Amino acid sequence: MKVYETTLSTGISRTKEFERKKLAAYAVNVGTKCGHGCEYCSTGALLRMHPSFKAAGRSPFEQGYAIIDPDTPDRVLRDARRIRSRGLVQLCTTVDAWSPEAQQYDLGRRCLGAILSEPGWTVRILTKNAAVVRDYELIARHRERVLVGLSITAPADKADLIAALEPHASPIPDRIAAVREAHDRGLRTYAMYCPLLPGVADEERQIDELVRLAGECGAEEIFTEPVNARGPGLRHAQDALERAGFHSEAQSLGTIRRREEWSRYARALIQNMQRSVRAILDITKLRILLYPSRLAPSDEERIRQDDSGVIWLNKR
Fold first, then answer.
1. Three-state secondary-structure class, residue 77
2. How far apart are CA 178 and CA 164, in angstroms?
């Protein structure tokens, strides 16, 4: 993988969008392009105008490369000391601090240590890489100030399929093992099941398995969301599944590229998750992130009739 370096302007920054999502008030990111290479990723659409892509001469929508800033921990430490109104920081929001290229510079551990070196800060870790277990000793020394979360996008029996969609992330069984280990060590955990794709991880049985996992690992919250249809991610994911021989799943994914089908998928996913969390855990733990702009009016109306756990991400 080709790795490009860039210089970012911030260390710890306010993030109103993630505050609305009830994830964190502050964000840390270690670059603009993550090497995990998730085919459905919408970050390219979000950051497409960032000058780092022009400097690298690469499209934000292509795979096979990463862009990181090795000096991020220095700015994080500066901001951790400078900012007076302190709170919850998500590490990270658009890229992954434990991705393969970030590990070369130990960016996850160094950023985490910089934040925790100052009182008043708490951290929500989000990663798709089981390498985070190497930092559990550091986290254990600040166990009340850190929430550990690994993005798990399907049950373990779908590991081969997920490997086609998330080629450089840790295998699903390794991520599950990392969450279990965090719980066994007495660390705080939360569940991040984003996205749960149609034909991959949106059936009742699959959702029940993931919700039970969250309960077994002491998850304080369960986050999920329908896949973001922004940008070319759905098309790329469909093509990746076809290349890997998962033809029926590719067809299911291709179907929701149509707005009305995405709306039906989103409604069914929300209702299945609500049912499962009510039956197995506690509905107050559920956080469903939902942008309603692609919902059909009839589906939106049905969701609003029972929107337990739904975080409506619109301006109304």
1. helix
2. 21
Residue 257, pLDDT > 90, answer yes
Residue 259, phi-psi category: left (phi > 0), alpha (psi -120 to 50), beta (remainder): alpha
**In contact, 147 and 123? CB cutoff 8 Å:** yes
Answer yes or no: are the C-beta atoms of 55 and 187 closer than 8 Å: no
Q: Report the C-alpha gap between 34 and 94 in whole angstroms.
A: 8
CA 159, 160, 165, 169 dihedral sign is: positive
Other beta carbons within 10 angstroms of residue 275's beta carbon come to 15
Q: Which CATH class is domain 128-316?
A: alpha beta
DSSP per position, 182-198: HHHTT-EEEEEE----T
Encode pLDDT of 81-118 as tens digits.
999 999 999 999 999 999 999 999 999 999 999 999 99
Strand partners, 149: 126
| CB neighbours of residue 135 within 10 Å | 20
Give pLDDT, residue 238: 96
Write out pLDDT tens, residues 274-293. 999 999 999 999 999 999 99
Domain boundaries, the chain: 1-120, 128-316
Spatial separation of the C-alpha atoms in residues 295 and 72, rounded to whole Å: 38
Q: CB within 8 A of 151, min separation 6: which ones?
A: 126, 127, 128, 175, 192, 193, 194
pTM: 0.95
What are the backbone dihedrals phi and psi of residue 73, each rounded to the nearest 5 degrees, phi first? -60, -30
pLDDT band of 315, cuts 50, 70, 90: low
